[in-house]
Amino acid sequence: MTTEKKHENTKLIILVLLALNVLLGIYIAFFKNDALSLETLKVWGAENMKIATELYQLPAFSAQWKQQLEEGLQMFQGWAAQQPAAEQAPTTTETAPIITE
Question: What is the CB-side half-sphere exposure of residue 36 using CA atoms within 13 A?
């Protein structure tokens, strides 16, 4: 391949990548669902999303979730602290079964 041919191929590749970049930008800007619309689908509609938004803004709701998250964190921290002890070899020994006639 000559240098001129390689230069033309490089230009073509760059143009194709630029075109793909523009098409992807248009898709993201105009056609792709945003995160809010996906969350709205999760709660089965805009009316339910409005209720969920109001619920999330209540101080009592956030305090309850904070308490549950803290309890979960404490539980898993306690579990993680016990893991090295749980990985030790068991201290019991197995015995062969006794056969009686």
Answer: 4
Cα separation, 83 vs 66, whole angstroms? 26
Where in the sequence is the domain holding 52, given as residue range(s)?
Answer: 33-77
**Running DSSP on this structure, what letter comes out for residue 95?**
-
Total count of domains within the chain? 1
Q: 64-76: buried (b, 16+ CB within 10 Å) or exposed (e) per residue?
A: eeeeeeeeeeeee
In angstroms, the CA 67 to CA 7 distance is: 63
pLDDT on residue 92: 62
CA end-to-end span of the chain: 89
Classify residue 88: in a domain, yes or no: no
Beta-carbon count within 10 A of 40 CB: 18
24-42: pLDDT as tens digits: 999 888 888 788 888 899 8
